[in-house]
Amino acid sequence: MKRLSEIFPLLEEPKNIVITFHQKPDGDAMGAGVGLYNFLIQFGHKVTVISPTNWAGFLSWMPGAKKVVDFEMQKEKALKALKGADWLFCLDFNVLNRTKNMEPVIKDLKCIKILIDHHEQPQTEVFDYGESNTDKSSTAEMVFDFIINSGHAKMINKDIAECLYAGVMTDTGSFRFNSTSADVHTMVATLKGTGFDHSQVHENLFDNFLESRFRFFGNVLLNRMEIFYEYNTALIAIPQSDLIKFNVKTGDTEGLVNFPLSIKGIKLAAIIIDRGDERKSSFRSKGGFDVNSFARKYFNGGGHFNAAGGKNSEPLEEVIKKFKKAIKENKEQLNS
Ligand code: 5GP
Ligand code: MN
């Protein structure tokens, strides 16, 4: 993988560009994706953003989000853009299986593939250019650096600012996590210079849920949360029947895994959701427990040191058993 700076001189030549990110994009994936879109269209490129799957309704306010193509719902349009692409930007993921059904298509593409990502252990051999930096708070911050380092700071407008702010704010837990460096605050100061309204961004992301989400949370915290004090661990396991009963939509489960992490003494919080086609898990830890390695070893996943995820094809009960066995095997690390 060659350095990202090597593509800077090529930015001004007109191109067909596709931007993609991981399935079920979060605020960072979508924010970085449409933030980059709003930058690249200023050069006159033809830019298409493709999401491997649908996304949460609370991300659709972002400038450019309405034009994002859903690979599962608009396959023909997505395939046409992918096949005609000169460049493919891959944001906020570093292993192709994070693009779900797009994986075989991306593998076959002969175009130039560019990685911008901050997760552990990248599959660098599949990308031509890129940057992978686990010290970065968010992919949104890396897109900001890309714009600045390529010498186009003046092109940062309100649209870009809203998207990148949403990304960095989401991935830093509203500027709480350790990854919130001085550079992050400097970036936000620069974004604020465009005059965008940051309170409105918070409102768009956090104050737009339906009542059903909170009824669902009530049920989960009362009936689906199990605490294993012996292992300083909490597990939430959600059967598909709950998703149906409470009319849970994509994005409604976001943030749920953080609740048990705020219980005194809990070092590892996990959530396993039976989505029907797969059992999707999320892991969060405090301090020295490495959930990236944990997710890789037991749940076909990965991510960051303190936030990771995975997926399994086995039934929910089997995945729960696997989890209980895994925490037993990690008892020492969970108690240190
Ligand atoms: P979340 O739990 O919010 O879905 O994800 C937490 C972190 O782990 C994110 O940075 C996300 O990109 C990463 N992650 C989530 N699921 C997977 C997965 O199945 N595989 C890998 N490699 N990373 C994941
Ligand atoms: Mn991210």
Task: Provide a descriptive summary of the structure in words.
- The chain is built from 13 helices and 13 strands.
- The two termini are about 40 Å apart.
- The mean pLDDT is about 95.
- Helices cover about 40% and strands about 20% of the residues.
- With about 325 residues, it is of the alpha/beta class.
- Helix 1 runs antiparallel to helix 5 (about 160-170), helix 4 runs antiparallel to helix 5 and helix 5 packs antiparallel against helix 6.
- The strands form two sheets. A seven-stranded parallel beta sheet has the order 1-7-6-5-2-3-4, sandwiched between helices. A six-stranded mixed beta sheet has the order 8-9-10-11-13-12.
- Guanosine-5'-monophosphate binds next to strand 12 and strand 13.
